[in-house]
Amino acid sequence: MSLDYYTVLRSSRTSSFEEIKRNYKELIKRYHPDKQVVSSDEQFKLIDAAWKTLRDEELRRKYDAVLMEKELEEQYLVCGNSYAINKNFVGNECIIECEECSYVIVVRA
Q1: Structural domains of the chain, ranges and CATH numbers in brackets
Q2: What is the spatial distance between Cα 37 and Cα 59, in angstroms, rounded to a whole number?
Q3: What confidence tens digit (pLDDT) does each residue in 79-100 have?
């Protein structure tokens, strides 16, 4: 998976708001353009964009959903088949088995 906002802020999806905020403050001090001899505008902008998304509860929830969707798209079966889940199971934790091979995935919502 490519670089994501959690990685930018040296956090994870399970990090608390306070932990993300603390990391943001440390990074913003380090990469602020006024503090740099060599320009780090791009890094500063990336840190700021990550913070603006992850500090807002609704934006963070949407961002997490996009990450989860990308992760699920990256999961593939060796046999070439695909996983399917009934919409009634969305929101619950469940194990989905491939009908063709022995692969299984755990879906947590």
Answers
A1: 1-74 (1.10.287.110), 77-109 (no CATH)
A2: 33
A3: 777 767 777 766 667 777 777 7
